[in-house]
Amino acid sequence: QTRRTPFIAGNWKMNLDHLQAVAFVQKLHWTLKDAGHETDTVEVGLFPPFTDLRTVQTLVDADKIPFALGAQDVSAHDSGPYTGEISGAFLAKLECRYVIIGHSERRQYHGETDEIVASKVAAALRHGLVPVICVGETAEDLETHGASAVPVAQLEKALAGLASGSEVVVAYEPVWAIGSGQAATADQAQEVCAKLRAVVGDALGADAAARTRVLYGGSVKSGNIARFMREPDVDGALVGGASLVVDEFAAIIRYQK
Ligand code: PEP
């Protein structure tokens, strides 16, 4: 089996301004250092609001802090008359490596369809960013179609037409588990993540499927992360609420299987 570096990603959503971000990132870095955390065992990704990115990038660069940086969204367009949009080119210039695309909050509150998600995934790749593609079923979907049908269909549409071997990260985030305190079970996560990996295989090829990190997200905490990480097809977590509390996020990063 291909070794995949586990990826723990913190989605700050609309929390922490750029000054709070500096204090947070420094504290997280020192908490991990004090605990003797080995930085190459797990990749840590931070996804702050756009307005924090420049500040956080300067800080991690100057202090050689080993966190990867990502944005929470990107425009489908490269430049031009799109007021309020942020180009992938700008994110790449800020040394962002990742961008979250299709988070359920964007699908739900900002009308992002599968077509929009697919065009944003293509835009991210055009600019050398790795899209973190979020898929997941609502409680209603779960009842009518079971757990995997909706996320599988969402991922198929997000990957359609991409070059084989394209680098992506997939995040399985059941909508009912996000911010609810009710995480999926490890078995549920494994079952859907394995199916999503198969979708990556069909769309991007067997090598890409073996290399691609598939994350679980939805009420991940220090108390349940290890359970997910023991599953063969779960390669990390996309963490919302718990990524805003330094000690809790550090404990998630330091999970022990
Ligand atoms: C998220 O919104 O991506 C998420 C997983 O949130 P939480 O961890 O708070 O459930």
Q: Would you give an account of this structure?
A:
The chain is α/β, with parallel strands linked by helices. The protein has two domains: 15-71, no CATH class; 77-245, Aldolase class I (TIM Barrel, Alpha-Beta Barrel). The protein has helices at 18-34, 50-62, 88-93, 104-109, 114-126, 139-145, 149-159, 186-204, 206-211, 225-229, 246-253; strands spanning 7-11, 43-47, 67-71, 98-101, 130-135, 169-172, 213-217, 236-239. The protein has an eight-stranded parallel barrel with strand order 1-2-3-4-5-6-7-8, surrounded by five helices. Helix 1 (18-34) packs across helix 11. 43% of the residues are buried. The mean pLDDT is 97. The structure holds phosphoenolpyruvate. Phosphoenolpyruvate is lined by residues 11, 173, 178-179, 217-220, 238-242.
Structural category: alpha/beta
Strand order of the largest sheet: 1-2-3-4-5-6-7-8
Which parts are unreliable, with pLDDT below 50 for 5 consecutive residues or more?
none
> Which CATH C-level class of the largest domain is it?
Alpha Beta
- The helix fraction, in percent, is 40-55%
How many DSSP E strands? 8
Q: Identify the CATH homologous superfamily of the largest domain.
A: Aldolase class I
CATH architecture of the largest domain: Alpha-Beta Barrel
